[in-house]
Amino acid sequence: MQCPNCKSKDIGKIGTNQYYCWNCFVEMSLQKGMLSLHQVEEDGSLSSLDDLFDDEDLHVGM
To answer: Which of 2, 49, 52, 60 is the most buried (most CB within 10 A)?
Structure first.
C-alpha cells in the first residue's frame, strides 16, 4: 500500500482496516476498497482529508 497523500510506503497497521502513514502522519481507514484519510489534531480528534483527493486516488486495488 502507498499513502495517497505523500506516496510513502511507510504504512503501519493500527487496527482492523486502519492504517497510519509514518511519513506524513495521516490516519487511513479502508472500507469497500476505498480509503478514507484523516489528519490527527492536537486534541486527538480526526479531521477528514477526503475532499482533497479524487476517488481514483483513494481507490485501493488489491
So the answer is: 49
